[in-house]
Structure formats: C-alpha cells, structure tokens
Amino acid sequence: MSMRQMTDIAAALIPDFDLTAHNTLALRARSRFGVMIDQPTLLPALFDHAAAQNLPVRVLGGGSNVVLAPEYDGITALLTLPGRKIIDQTIQGTLIEAAAGETWHDFVLWTVDQGLGGLENLALIPGTVGAAPVQNIGAYGAELADIFHSLSAYDRATGATLTFGKDECAFGYRDSIFKRHPNRYVVLAVRFALTATWTPNLGFAGLSDLAGSKEISPRTVMDRVIELRTSKLPDWRETPNAGSFFQNPIVTTTEAGPVLDDFPSAPCYPQPDGRAKLSAGWLIEKSGLKGYRLGPAGISERHALVLVNHGGAQQADIAALAGHIKQTVQTRFGIALHEEPIFL
Ligand SMILES: Cc1cc2nc3c(=O)[nH]c(=O)nc-3n(C[C@H](O)[C@H](O)[C@H](O)COP(=O)(O)OP(=O)(O)OC[C@H]3O[C@@H](n4cnc5c(N)ncnc54)[C@H](O)[C@@H]3O)c2cc1C
C-alpha cells in the first residue's frame, strides 16, 4: 500500500457523516466518518487505515434494506463504483456485468433497452447492484439467483479479490453467504447470464394475463411489474420505508395447521422440501395491525408488510414496533416472523 493511497483515503473521510438521506427509512443516523468508494483500489487503503486507527468499517449501498443505529462509531463506506457492460454475446445468450454502485433499477432499464430479457420481473427494487446478491433479491416469481452468473468481491480477511460462482454464493430465500458473513466480503461487480431464447416468467398473480398477448416482450412485462409495484407499495421518497419488513415464514404443515384451520383460503405456497410458505403481510393484516402506529413508527395503511417512519423515528422505534408485531402474530397464529432488513 503506497503512502499516497493511505493519504488519499484519510483525506476522503468525511467526519460526522449524516446518513439520514442515505437510508430509505429516513432514520436519523450519523457515522463518525463516511467515505464514497468509487474505485476498487480504494478498499485496501480504507481497511488498512481503519485497522491503524482501530475503527470498524461497514458497507452501505442505497440504504434500502437497513435499519440504522443513530450513531456508528466507525467508518461507513458508501459503494458508488460505476459501470455496466455486455461482456459476451453469442447465439446461446448474453453475459452482462454491472459494478456494485450502479442503481439496480437503472441497470434493469438498461438491459431492457438493450433488448435483453431476464431481469424485468425485478424492476423497481430500490438499492444497488452490489447489495442485490446479499439477500438474493426477489419479486414477482423471480429472484436474482435465476439469472446470476458470478460476482467479484473483495475479501476483507485476506485483501484478495475473489470470484464467486453461483454455488459458492449459497443463495437461499432472501439469503446468501454474504448475508451470513456480513463483515467479510465487499461485492465489487456482478455478472448475469441471459439466455438468447427469452421465456417470460408470468406465474405470479398480476402477470398471468400477459401470457396471451402478442406484444409480449421484456419491456411489457417490466412495465406491468412497475405498474403493480407502484399501485401496491408506498413510495419511500414520500413515506420512508424499507420495503417488506418480514420474510414470508416457511413452516411445517403442523405449524401452518392453526392458520389453515381458521382460514382455509389463507395464502399458502407448498415448498419443494414439503414445507409451506405463508404470507407475512397476510398474517399481520389478519392480526388487525394494518395501519397500526407506535410513536413515530407505523405499519403502512396500504401494505401490512411495510413499516414506515411517520417522522423523526429512530432505530429503537422501528425495533419496538417490529417486536410488537412479532409478538402479536406469535400469540394469534403461533408463527414466528423474522426481520428482512439488517439492523446496522
Ligand atoms: C420500497 C422498497 C421495496 C423493496 N422491494 C424489494 C423486493 O421486492 N424484493 C427484495 O428482495 N427486496 C426489496 N427491497 C429491499 C432492498 O431494496 C434490497 O434488499 C436491495 O438489494 C438493498 O440494496 P441497497 O443497496 O439499498 O442495500 P443496503 O440497504 O445499503 O445494504 C443492505 C445490506 O447489504 C450490505 N451491502 C450493501 N452493499 C454491499 C456490497 N457492495 N458488498 C457487500 N455487502 C453490501 C450492507 O452492509 C447491508 O448489510 C425493497 C426495499 C424498499 C425500500
């Protein structure tokens, strides 16, 4: 590590960094230092500097899946690495790459503009490309793992840049190796393999009527996804939120029993392992909590799975509300809910 790079990173650190505008819940949050990482070569210098100063480092993308503490006594590194490109195009398909700091939705739009299909069901998910593999983002019957090829990540433990194939990422439902080892890897760039023969994924409610359409294309599917999401979810710019706050619980048929006994038509999706996925939003709504408020935090009137900041909320307010919801659903249905966003 050159002296020059160490000096550059020290100069780039912004003291008492305000993160209120860097998290979609708009929680009031500050970090002892903030720094924009717009090139991978800054990372070794950053971690060396932090180690020398005995400061912890955490990574943030768009702040759309986090519940930030009011104070962080360390360095918050905002990943802003730019760039997207087609790496290879053959008659079998297209390999594309985007850097971690790219906005996910802009990247989806770009693929559709290139006439490429595969990412359209994942349109309008907030945040960055780099965070997308962390929880294997998913929506409208698709998930990132479906079209994932590989990624490059900086290993904080060794300083090496590694390539992860699909198996090494250990993707699961809103899960990956990166979520399980939160302080180990910094995702730098993600690659996607899109097949030349595009097959629309229309299994999800709200998309199936497109199946008969002669005009069907990645763009028409994407436009429908955008329309559906806009009509269902509150806009985080107007009503600060972190999207779905709880994962849909995957339970045994015995655990699902009390729910289905009372409500035989409750949403319940069989899983390959014999278990069943229930709808967390439905459970919260049926527990009578839609629109519920606890101090400055609340549950959206529009969607029971979305927790919102009505103004001035802090991490503790969101945590208190989440605790109340979990306890209420547990008491009513005997089902445990687990938070999706990460408390940082
Ligand atoms: C309105 C709304 C709707 C949403 N809808 C969906 C949805 O449909 N499906 C879905 O799956 N999610 C959804 N989300 C959640 C969120 O958009 C995704 O999880 C997104 O991928 C988070 O990206 P981010 O850049 O904001 O990550 P952040 O919130 O900044 O970070 C999330 C986690 O990833 C880590 N991280 C961030 N960047 C990197 C990196 N480069 N390398 C390593 N770790 C990193 C952070 O440390 C943190 O632990 C929604 C959120 C909102 C606000």
Automatic annotation (TrEMBL):
<dbReference type="Pfam" id="PF01565">
    <property type="entry name" value="FAD_binding_4"/>
</dbReference>
<feature type="active site">
    <location>
        <position position="340"/>
    </location>
</feature>
<dbReference type="InterPro" id="IPR036635">
    <property type="entry name" value="MurB_C_sf"/>
</dbReference>
<keyword id="KW-0521">NADP</keyword>
<dbReference type="GO" id="GO:0009252">
    <property type="term" value="P:peptidoglycan biosynthetic process"/>
</dbReference>
<dbReference type="InterPro" id="IPR016169">
    <property type="entry name" value="FAD-bd_PCMH_sub2"/>
</dbReference>
<dbReference type="InterPro" id="IPR011601">
    <property type="entry name" value="MurB_C"/>
</dbReference>
<dbReference type="InterPro" id="IPR036318">
    <property type="entry name" value="FAD-bd_PCMH-like_sf"/>
</dbReference>
<dbReference type="InterPro" id="IPR016166">
    <property type="entry name" value="FAD-bd_PCMH"/>
</dbReference>
<dbReference type="Pfam" id="PF02873">
    <property type="entry name" value="MurB_C"/>
</dbReference>
<keyword id="KW-0963">Cytoplasm</keyword>
<dbReference type="GO" id="GO:0008762">
    <property type="term" value="F:UDP-N-acetylmuramate dehydrogenase activity"/>
</dbReference>
<protein>
    <recommendedName>
        <fullName>UDP-N-acetylenolpyruvoylglucosamine reductase</fullName>
        <ecNumber>1.3.1.98</ecNumber>
    </recommendedName>
</protein>
<dbReference type="GO" id="GO:0008360">
    <property type="term" value="P:regulation of cell shape"/>
</dbReference>
<dbReference type="GO" id="GO:0071555">
    <property type="term" value="P:cell wall organization"/>
</dbReference>
<keyword id="KW-0274">FAD</keyword>
<keyword id="KW-0560">Oxidoreductase</keyword>
<keyword id="KW-0961">Cell wall biogenesis/degradation</keyword>
<dbReference type="InterPro" id="IPR006094">
    <property type="entry name" value="Oxid_FAD_bind_N"/>
</dbReference>
<comment type="function">
    <text>Cell wall formation.</text>
</comment>
<dbReference type="InterPro" id="IPR003170">
    <property type="entry name" value="MurB"/>
</dbReference>
<comment type="similarity">
    <text>Belongs to the MurB family.</text>
</comment>
<dbReference type="InterPro" id="IPR016167">
    <property type="entry name" value="FAD-bd_PCMH_sub1"/>
</dbReference>
<keyword id="KW-0573">Peptidoglycan synthesis</keyword>
<dbReference type="GO" id="GO:0005829">
    <property type="term" value="C:cytosol"/>
</dbReference>
<keyword id="KW-0285">Flavoprotein</keyword>
<dbReference type="GO" id="GO:0071949">
    <property type="term" value="F:FAD binding"/>
</dbReference>
<keyword id="KW-0132">Cell division</keyword>
<keyword id="KW-0133">Cell shape</keyword>
<feature type="active site" description="Proton donor">
    <location>
        <position position="244"/>
    </location>
</feature>
<dbReference type="GO" id="GO:0051301">
    <property type="term" value="P:cell division"/>
</dbReference>
<comment type="pathway">
    <text>Cell wall biogenesis; peptidoglycan biosynthesis.</text>
</comment>
<keyword id="KW-0131">Cell cycle</keyword>
<feature type="domain" description="FAD-binding PCMH-type">
    <location>
        <begin position="28"/>
        <end position="197"/>
    </location>
</feature>
<feature type="active site">
    <location>
        <position position="174"/>
    </location>
</feature>
